[in-house]
Amino acid sequence: MIIAIDDVLTPAEVAAIRAAAEDLDFADGRETAGPIARTIKANDQARPSPELDAIRGKVAASLSQNQVFASAARPKAMTPLIVSRYRQGQTYGMHVDDALMAGIRTDLSFTLFLCDPETYQGGALVIADTAEERAFKLSAGSLLLYPSTSLHRVEPVTDGARICIVGWVQSWIKDAAQREILFDLDRAIADILAREGKSTLLDTMTKTRSNLIRMWAG
Ligand code: NI
After folding, report:
1. Where are the domains of the chain?
2. What's the gap in Å between 194 CA and the centre of ligand 1?
3. Which of the chain's termini has less CB crowding within 10 Å, N or C?
4. The pTM is what?
5. Around ion ligand 1, which residues have CB less than 5 A away?
6. CA 90 to centroid of ligand 1, rounded, Å
7. pLDDT tens digits for 206-215?
């Protein structure tokens, strides 16, 4: 399941975080790439600093409060967030993310867009499956969450700059199909609650959800 989550950050938060990100000191992204990625990766990543830590803290707080992110990812652990920048001519060719990063298994990858799509040309995140490729270029403050098992790439930026925050989640639910079932159950339970309040149907559904999580969590 690929899901776009809008308004993870408010417009004011996006503006503040983007301004802070633009002032960060960036290093060549190849410094953190493995031998294969190094040949196809051409971007910049923010160097460690107290200002980067402040951005990471604000975004992590917003993610932890986002109900859709919680339901779709069921995060158990996350890698430190990366602020990445693509300027004119920069790109990241087709690759799959490392399975293990910063001591966690990467089940889900996400990109939080900080720049409005009309402010740069190119730079779409393209996710491939065996049948087709799908390109995503979300509005500022929106986040794309997708399985880390996917091949994906970032199209070359041909004008302007694309600044994003990227990260990886180890989920309590390793299996993508099981995660989707729980995501759908969350939505069904919210619907029932809105329609009829607490009911025997709601009790049965929440019991089922809890027991599936017990069965699948690890
Ligand atoms: Ni990647």
Report:
1. 3-171, 176-216
2. 38
3. C
4. 0.95
5. 97
6. 14
7. 999 999 999 9
